[in-house]
Amino acid sequence: MANKKLNIGIDASFVHGENSGTGEYTKQLIKHLSELDKKNSYTIFPFFTYIYNNSFKAYHPKLPDNFHIFWKNIPKRVIDILWNKFYMFRTLFLPHFDIFHSTTFTIPPPSSYAKLIFTVYDVSFFTHPQFHLKENIEHCLKGTKEAVKRADVIIAISEHTKKDLIKYFDCPENKIKVTPLACDEIFYKKINQTEKNKVLHKYKITVPFIFHLGSLEPRKNTMGLIKAYRLLPKKLQNKYHLVIGGGKGWLNSSIYDYIRKYNLSTNIKIIGYINNDDLPIFYQSAKCFVYPSFYEGFGIPPLEAMASDCPTLVSNNSSLPETYQEGAIYCKSNDIEDISNKMEQLLMSNNEDLIKKGKIQAKKFSWNKCIKKTLNIYEKIF
């Protein structure tokens, strides 16, 4: 372990608003570091280089004295003016850090750090560019290529992501450290029926239902899920609604067109982003959780489902078998009939054995383990 007190910067610009896996990772990173590390000094950046979310002032976690939020006390209207009118401002006032941890595929100027740590979630922007917007491909590709050259350590969130970095970016294996992710402890807590009813009523959801969570983007295969649902016997469609939660995403207009074309709006509910405090209720109330993604670097939602005793169906590709092992059943993401058949299997079974295996598998992962490994990386590279 390093003897000196380290000055560490962390990019938290994806924590705000409808945060996805990237935002959840960074939120948990900061939360657990603040509990584990009372020695080193941390500066948290709620906006960074060209990533600027207008809701960044809403981010005010309770943090100990060795944690500081960058420009916390400067009025937002002043930061808005500087950000929008003076491009140099975005990096001009960056302090120098012993370590800077990039969590958004963005690399700060070399003058701002002695050591650089860079987290890579997946490389789907390279392996499956058809699922991404052009600007996202350019951003992630540029950041990953620079990280392979300049980062002292690249953190991969699964062995699968590590293998992809070596295969597609020729990244030296000894530069990559794997820190598997986890789900929040709130998903293990049982919620009473009164509270469940209250939250489901707020979202206008009735039980029983099939649940899916993921931003509406092509990689999540929401269209495949909807087509598979349409293949279910009518009696099952009438009994189990399909509830789809998640952020707005992109390249998804065909999903709404398909629902209108086949008059599925009565049985399929797209409810948008679900508040994190409400999310456990959806898993605990659902008959099953279905996640037929084309590609995942880790995939947190199925872990949340398994922790919540919700039988889970995932794709048999990318990192998913590595993460979920015997805790889920598997489908072929490009085979609509297979997805539908596996859904029907879960709907027609009590799934007791699968639920037990899912809980056992979920408990193998914890944010505390993940962030302890990360802190160890910080201290070993200095």
From TrEMBL:
Naturally occurring in which organism (per UniProt) = Candidatus Roizmanbacteria bacterium CG11_big_fil_rev_8_21_14_0_20_37_16
UniProt GO MF annotations: glycosyltransferase activity
Task: Spell out the PANTHER family in the cross-references.
Answer: GLYCOSYLTRANSFERASE WBBK-RELATED
Q: Which Gene3D superfamilies match?
A: Glycogen Phosphorylase B
Which of UniProt's keywords are assigned here? Transferase
Q: Where is the Glycosyl transferase family domain?
A: 206-357
Q: Does the keyword Transferase apply?
A: yes
Entry protein name:
Glycosyl transferase family 1
Q: Name one GO biological process term.
A: lipopolysaccharide biosynthetic process
Q: Which residues form the Glycosyltransferase subfamily 4-like N-terminal domain?
A: 21-183
